[in-house]
């Protein structure tokens, strides 16, 4: 795919003023990811400021999820690119370390722990936050394990209340509708208390009401908690309503970025979405 | 939640006993294993001692397989390592049962951890093969060779019939003493395993089992947790091996063949994976089935005792066809039926 698209102009909307990735809440510099002959992400540099809500959009196969996977360490970038989290170069760090440093993530395909109930799913990531000690876990009553678990459960119940999931706490994942599963996915990542949350099509497959609820929760998290959100989303109406900035990917490369209202009016963006020249 | 009962704190919600009915069941059930050896035949006391010892070993497998999702095919050799280590500690250093169990557990945990190292690069069946290799290398070669006697202490070893808990203090010798000692150790390990399950480490093990890719993205260190599961499971199996050696009073590599590994899988699957009570039920059922099947054949068809494994195998297959998730799942369905009775739903 690399090289098939025209290079963006040096100035103006198509390149925008990128925030220096090395000082951003989350950023990447010159990141490329190839799979054999396919270039899924092509020399991408982005910087997302603390407290921003940024949406990444683009047609299917544009490289959005791959970019997210590179940012959170699921994939290693090809040689030369760098990933930054809160100003720290985390390129060589595995995904679990990035998560512990405050990079949360939800999944397009959900990837919930299917055999567990809602409470256990969220308690699992809460456990990561607490870094449990083996001895205190084994001894439980005398080693502080009980106290830690009670604190975790208290916090998880707060998250369940916040996301209006209380009635589902003992439901197994498979028995829940998609809208609730997406909310559980969000709850699970919130239990880690992330600074930056990557949302991979968190509203995909949801009804209008479910989307509305999800946007309401995310807007609350963004405004009241100051959470930095990076969202992949196909629904341009939602994107333009909630995002402060928008990045458009096509064939692995950034073709536009900036304020949503300006970006959606860009002829190149309209072309890739409508196919009309 | 039973009607009229409420949790008033998060701590209450995490208890091993949570409902009034559980407290009543515990109070009524506890005296049974404590009084049983005084009313059972000596043979049955021995069978239950063996049940307790195997429960500890299968709990180790339970941690590695049911929690962490690692197929381990070296239960036999892990028990053997525990047995040979304990034998040396008891025979040569005379430190007693408790230090022997502890050191046997630690040595086995270390070996299990080393053979779990391939989990860094591969998973599932490929790691299982590395443990299977250990099973054959150790049992078919290492423990049978006198050249390695300096390490294992001799291919065949005997243990004294009376051994102190620590050095020669409080000796364990009679069948009843062995029964109570094995029971206490089993209860300790069962509670430790339940504790592991209801805390963060158990949850992280299960998360890796269910979906290791998303677990890692959510902050779980796959390699470290897998190795921890190997070490914890290995420790338990090593302790079980040490107790098995003390129980039989003699060790030889034949006792620790792949057969014991497969038997422990049968115990785990029959009881039902994922629950400590499943392990307890599975081991008890298999050992009692073996015992009564053999006794029946000896009484009814003394010339056909060699067919015992055939009958045993058929019964296990039938049970698993009827309820593939094991006895615990069947009991769960029965409980649900009784809860709704006399209504259908």
Automatic annotation (TrEMBL), chain A:
<dbReference type="InterPro" id="IPR003439">
    <property type="entry name" value="ABC_transporter-like_ATP-bd"/>
</dbReference>
<feature type="region of interest" description="Disordered">
    <location>
        <begin position="1"/>
        <end position="21"/>
    </location>
</feature>
<keyword id="KW-0067">ATP-binding</keyword>
<dbReference type="GO" id="GO:0005524">
    <property type="term" value="F:ATP binding"/>
</dbReference>
<dbReference type="InterPro" id="IPR027417">
    <property type="entry name" value="P-loop_NTPase"/>
</dbReference>
<keyword id="KW-0547">Nucleotide-binding</keyword>
<feature type="compositionally biased region" description="Pro residues">
    <location>
        <begin position="1"/>
        <end position="10"/>
    </location>
</feature>
<keyword id="KW-0813">Transport</keyword>
<feature type="domain" description="ABC transporter">
    <location>
        <begin position="26"/>
        <end position="276"/>
    </location>
</feature>
<dbReference type="Pfam" id="PF00005">
    <property type="entry name" value="ABC_tran"/>
</dbReference>
<protein>
    <submittedName>
        <fullName>ABC transporter ATP-binding protein</fullName>
    </submittedName>
</protein>
<dbReference type="InterPro" id="IPR003593">
    <property type="entry name" value="AAA+_ATPase"/>
</dbReference>
<dbReference type="InterPro" id="IPR051120">
    <property type="entry name" value="ABC_AA/LPS_Transport"/>
</dbReference>
Automatic annotation (TrEMBL), chain B:
<protein>
    <submittedName>
        <fullName>Branched-chain amino acid ABC transporter permease</fullName>
    </submittedName>
</protein>
<dbReference type="GO" id="GO:0005886">
    <property type="term" value="C:plasma membrane"/>
</dbReference>
<feature type="transmembrane region" description="Helical">
    <location>
        <begin position="72"/>
        <end position="90"/>
    </location>
</feature>
<keyword id="KW-1133">Transmembrane helix</keyword>
<feature type="transmembrane region" description="Helical">
    <location>
        <begin position="179"/>
        <end position="196"/>
    </location>
</feature>
<feature type="transmembrane region" description="Helical">
    <location>
        <begin position="96"/>
        <end position="117"/>
    </location>
</feature>
<dbReference type="InterPro" id="IPR001851">
    <property type="entry name" value="ABC_transp_permease"/>
</dbReference>
<keyword id="KW-0472">Membrane</keyword>
<feature type="transmembrane region" description="Helical">
    <location>
        <begin position="227"/>
        <end position="250"/>
    </location>
</feature>
<feature type="transmembrane region" description="Helical">
    <location>
        <begin position="45"/>
        <end position="65"/>
    </location>
</feature>
<dbReference type="Pfam" id="PF02653">
    <property type="entry name" value="BPD_transp_2"/>
</dbReference>
<dbReference type="InterPro" id="IPR043428">
    <property type="entry name" value="LivM-like"/>
</dbReference>
<feature type="transmembrane region" description="Helical">
    <location>
        <begin position="124"/>
        <end position="143"/>
    </location>
</feature>
<feature type="transmembrane region" description="Helical">
    <location>
        <begin position="21"/>
        <end position="39"/>
    </location>
</feature>
<feature type="transmembrane region" description="Helical">
    <location>
        <begin position="310"/>
        <end position="331"/>
    </location>
</feature>
<keyword id="KW-0812">Transmembrane</keyword>
<keyword id="KW-1003">Cell membrane</keyword>
<feature type="transmembrane region" description="Helical">
    <location>
        <begin position="262"/>
        <end position="289"/>
    </location>
</feature>
């Amino acid at each position: 795919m690399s090289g098939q698209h025209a290079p963006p102009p040096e100035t103006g909307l198509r390149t925008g003023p990128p925030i220096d990735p090395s000082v951003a809440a989350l950023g990447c510099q010159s990141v490329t990811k190839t799979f054999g002959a396919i270039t899924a992400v092509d020399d991408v540099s982005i910087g997302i400021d603390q407290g921003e809500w940024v949406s990444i959009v683009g047609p299917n196969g544009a490289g959005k999820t791959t970019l997210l996977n590179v940012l959170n360490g699921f994939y290693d970038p090809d040689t030369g690119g760098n990933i930054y989290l809160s100003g720290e170069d985390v390129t060589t760090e595995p995904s679990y370390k990035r998560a512990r440093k405050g990079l949360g993530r939800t999944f397009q395909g959900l990837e919930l722990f299917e055999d567990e109930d809602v409470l256990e799913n969220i308690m699992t990531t809460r456990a990561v936050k607490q870094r449990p000690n083996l001895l205190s876990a084994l001894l439980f009553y005398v080693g502080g394990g009980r106290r830690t678990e009670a604190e975790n459960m208290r916090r998880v119940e707060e998250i369940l209340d916040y996301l209006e999931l209380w009635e589902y706490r003992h439901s197994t994942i498979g028995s829940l509708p998609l809208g609730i599963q997406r909310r559980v996915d969000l709850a699970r990542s919130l239990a880690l208390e992330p600074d930056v949350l990557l949302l991979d099509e968190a509203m995909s497959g949801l009804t209008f009401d479910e989307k509305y609820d999800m946007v309401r929760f995310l807007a609350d998290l963004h405004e009241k908690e100051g959470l930095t959100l990076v969202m992949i989303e196909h629904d341009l109406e939602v994107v333009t309503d909630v995002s402060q900035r928008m990045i458009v990917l096509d064939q692995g490369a950034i073709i536009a970025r900036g304020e949503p209202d300006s970006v959606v009016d860009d002829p190149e963006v309209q072309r890739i979405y409508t196919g009309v020249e | 939640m039973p009607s009229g009962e409420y949790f008033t704190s998060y701590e209450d919600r995490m208890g091993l006993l949570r409902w009034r009915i559980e407290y009543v069941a515990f109070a009524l059930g506890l005296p049974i294993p404590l009084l049983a050896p005084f009313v059972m035949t000596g043979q049955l006391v021995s069978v239950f001692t063996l049940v307790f010892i195997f429960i500890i070993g299968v709990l180790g497998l339970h941690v590695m397989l049911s929690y962490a999702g690692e197929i381990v095919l070296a239960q036999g050799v892990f028990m053997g390592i525990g047995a040979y280590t304990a034998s040396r500690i008891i025979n040569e250093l005379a430190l007693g049962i408790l230090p022997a169990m502890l050191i046997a557990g630690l040595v086995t945990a270390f070996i299990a951890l080393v053979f779990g190292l391939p989990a860094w690069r591969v998973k599932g069946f490929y790691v299982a093969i590395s443990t299977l290799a250990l099973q054959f290398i150790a049992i078919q070669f290492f423990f049978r060779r006198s050249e390695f006697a300096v390490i294992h202490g001799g291919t065949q070893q005997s243990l004294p019939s009376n051994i102190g808990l620590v050095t020669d203090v409080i000796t364990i010798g009679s069948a009843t003493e062995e029964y109570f000692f094995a029971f206490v150790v089993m209860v300790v390990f069962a509670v430790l395993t339940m504790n592991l399950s209801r805390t963060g480490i158990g949850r992280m093990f299960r998360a890796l089992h269910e979906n290791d890719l998303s677990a890692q993205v959510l902050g779980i260190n796959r390699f470290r947790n897998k190795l921890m599961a190997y070490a914890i499971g290995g420790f338990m199996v090593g302790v079980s091996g040490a107790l098995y050696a003390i129980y039989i009073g003699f060790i030889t590599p034949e006792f620790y063949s792949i057969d014991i590994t497969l038997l422990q899988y049968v115990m785990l699957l029959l009881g039902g994976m994922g629950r400590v009570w499943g392990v307890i039920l599975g081991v008890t059922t298999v050992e009692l089935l073996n015992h009564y099947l053999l006794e029946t054949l000896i009484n009814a068809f003394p010339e056909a005792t060699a067919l015992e494994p055939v009958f045993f195998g058929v019964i296990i297959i039938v049970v698993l066809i009827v309820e593939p998730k094991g006895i615990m799942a069947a009991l769960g369905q029965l409980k649900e039926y009784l809860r709704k009775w006399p209504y259908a739903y």
